[in-house]
Amino acid sequence: MPRTAASTLSSSSSSSTPSSPSPSSSPIPRIADRDRRRTSASTILRSVLEHGPVARSTIARLTGLSPASVTDYCSRFTELGLIREATTPRPSGGVGRPHVPVDLDESRFIVGGVHVAVPYTTVALLDLRGRVVAERELKHSGATDPYGPYGVLARAADGLAALLDEVPGSRPLGVGFAAGGWVDRDSGTVVEHPLLGWREVPVREVLGAQTGLPVHVDGHARALVNAERLFGQARGSASVLHLFVGNVVDAAFATNDEVHHGPRSQAGSITHLPVPGGTEPCDCGRVGCLQAELSERTLCRRARDAGVIEGANPLHVVAAAAAGDREAVRLLVERAGAVGRAARLLLDVLNPETVVVTEMGVVHREDCLAALRAGVGDERAAAVVPTGFPHSVLAVAGGSVALDVLYRDPLAASPEAI
Fold first, then answer.
1. Would the pLDDT of 187 be above 90?
2. pLDDT value, residue 415
3. Cα dihedral 263/244/189/401 (nearest 10)
4. Are the beta carbons of 196 and 156 closer than 8 angstroms?
5. Secondary structure of residue 271 in the 3-state scheme
6. Is residue 258 within a helix (H) or strand (E), and if so which, with residue range?
7. Angle at Cα 19 formed by Cα 217 and Cα 258, nearest 5°?
8. Which of 92, 130, 180, 219 stands the most exposed, by the fewest C-beta atoms within 10 Å?
9. pLDDT for the residue 132
10. Annotated region Disordered: where (predicted)?
11. pLDDT (tens digit per residue) in 100-140
12. CA 38, 203, 143: angle at the middle one, nearest 5?
């Protein structure tokens, strides 16, 4: 059966199992060769992502790979439908035929994304550059949806199908899923999400059955750190910390393009990190834990107590601040400063080159960004930047789980084409 790019995002179980070695050979060189091929393929496709349209000779110069190797991989990517040759050749700058640059074939393939937050699920379609093609919010019926996780996932699958109908001619490579809480990437399971009431939900299995597509699952802070590395603020950074502050507060750390997951993907849980000067009681029995202190639920409750808003939508606090409400401004600026102090603690431990913060006030207001950086401290402030996806962060989160798989191992293939 012919190879297609859709097989790229299939389960890697068949492609990752080495063939049985002959009695006279060891599997170790074969494994090393496979890892080298995967790394080379990833490096070349990411060069096209970052620099395209780009000549093959330029890719060879940028990556240090041989021109023959670059040409071979580009031919395979063209066969898969991931890249295409540009229509207008560029002068070679010397004797010989003009260079024919290559670029991503952006019109052919897309990925689906599902992000489950507390109040709603975001479903989206992304192109190969991580740009949102279409998205939709599916509101939940309460803090813990009465339909349960399986109802939420069924409606997400229906939402993706509806979006695909709106983008005829594009072929889905797979689906990425992201959520807060404890999400195990390897098993494709939401192990625990207390705010949603989810425990041991087999997301990969359920969404895969409902969509008929390969499904990849991860926590949203890790999903977003990958998005920032591939398409956003952390391109080119040797190490990056992402801090997500919403209803759920968590973090992710990547170094040399590898995101740290820890056993069963428990890394990044900072729910109970103490906030200096915090006063908010936490379910754990202590006071001033990070999530209890900084969550959007807490922000909205404080805003209601101050008469700023009546409901539970944190964007109404931002709107009130934009309209000149001083109390709303104070609440947002103080929250951003506390986020900065939390980021400073993580900076002291991890010392990343870049810190990306996804927090509502920081995204929308310069005074909040200034308060964040002040909380971090002048000597580290320049390393701290807001998310590169201010208007589509949740839509990007889900799809980036699938796109990370593509760019990490673009030639991975299953025996069956989708």
1. yes
2. 29
3. -100
4. no
5. coil
6. strand 258-259
7. 35
8. 92
9. 97
10. 1-39
11. 899 999 888 999 999 999 999 999 999 999 999 999 999 98
12. 135
For residue range 27-47, list pLDDT tens digits in order: 444 446 778 889 999 999 999
**3-state SS, residue 214:** coil
Domains of the chain: 1-14+28-90+105-232+388-418 (3.30.420.40), 236-387 (3.30.420.40)
Helix (H, G, I), strand (E, B) or coil at 143: coil
Contact predicate 35/412, CB 8 Å: no
Distances (CA, A) of 280 to 31, 135, 195, 292, 317: 52, 35, 17, 6, 19
* Residues linked to residue 175 through DSSP beta bridges, in sequence order: 112, 215
Q: Do you know the residue count of the chain?
A: 418
Which class for 28: exposed (0-12), middle (13-18), buried (19 or more C-beta within 10 A)?
A: exposed
Report whether pLDDT(12) > 60: no
What does the alpha-carbon distance between residue 201 and residue 153 come to, in Å, rounded to a whole number? 10
pTM of the model: 0.87
Which band of pLDDT confidence, cut at 50, 70 and 90, is reported for residue 291?
very high
Burial degree of 139 (CB within 10 A; 0-12, 13-18, 19+): exposed
